[in-house]
User: Fold this.
Amino acid sequence: MAFYSGSNGELLINGQKAARVSNWSVSSNLGVLDTTSLADTDKTGTPGIRSTSGSCSLFYYSDDITLANSASTLINKLIKTKLPGGAPGQAAETELVQLKLKVNDGSTSGKYITGNVYLTSVSMTMAVGDVLSAECSFEFSGAPVEVFL
Amino acid sequence: MGIYLGDSGHVELLRESLNVPLYSDLDPADVNVDRKRFGFDFPHGALITGDRIEIRTRDNKNLELVAGHDFPDWDGYIGVDDAGGVALYETLQLALQNNRNAAIELIEPSYVQPIAVRNTQIRYRCIANITNYEITTTRDTVDITTLGEEFKTQYAGGLISGQGTLNCLWQYEPGGCGCEEREGFIEYPHYLAQLCIRTVQGASFQGRFYLDTSQKDAYVWYEAECIVTNVAMNFTATQPVTCSIQFVTTGKIALHMGMPPAYLLQEDGNLLLAESGEPIEIEST
Assistant:
């Protein structure tokens, strides 16, 4: 019997392995539509809309060569600057990102859930005694592309 | 292999304060010329016997308090009695003895003088009767272990802090500490107990914690600003009274080698200042 921990975890952003990820989480929900009718003694339902969302934390660091990092890759998918000559309220649209939340189980492909997501929030806090990191939340757009769990 | 013994280490203390001036009025009725003491309104515990203070008039007129002293300010040591009466002294030793016969002659002011009093400390003094001390420096680490790693990784640039304990034989009145070269430049453990409960001016002191002073020009010492956080007095029958003082450091901690800086002094112990206002450092040979 095998258990998995953080040392087996991995996050891929658009197919590229993200570096310095401290955690990821994913949550899938189903809205159940109520079909309970008169004379029923127990609540009944029918499947409604599914939604999948999650979050991840990445340390914000500086790569010696590219001066980039995975945290900034995600941040830049959400935060967009104003269009040149455009109105103050106009900027480029938020980009869709493909995330692969992976568990390395020893097999070649591992276990994973892949989907196209929109980042819904990114927060960074600079604090005394802490390393700068980015807390990202995302929501799947449509059903997951691949699920192998 | 060198082995060093504790007898070549000691602790020096520079009295400090939050440098918050105490503003008050010096009333002629509050000066008792015969008893060489005066009073002014200051929070109880804000001044401690042995403090070096500067009394300055706030109207820039000459301070009418010290006999024969015609300047707007006066700088020296104080002895404070239980009733809050203050006597002025030329030296720390006299202030610690708080013997009114040795106090500076006072005069009665001709009017109510607005004054500002602040602590002015200039030199380190050896703390007497220390039996042992320890100082610990700590570096915070931040866990930056990431997914996929087998071993924990830590960020090495965390914050630095320090803390320590001084264990002393309790002493509250002058009596020497046994080291003749520091005679006259001694602090007593009781001062640290007073510091812990000092009001307004805080409980900080500047400390030098010597590890080795056996070789001239090759001293080794920690230097840091410290805050007294805990003082425990231990009374045991058949044993000397001891006290244990715990402190934490605030700000920078330095580990020095060489000789601590020394400054040129006047005969009365005051610093001789250059035109820039800075003290004149003596070169170590």
Notes: The CA atoms of residues 87 and 94 of chain A lie 17 Å apart. The first helix of chain A runs from residue 70 to 78. Chain A has a mean pLDDT of 92.
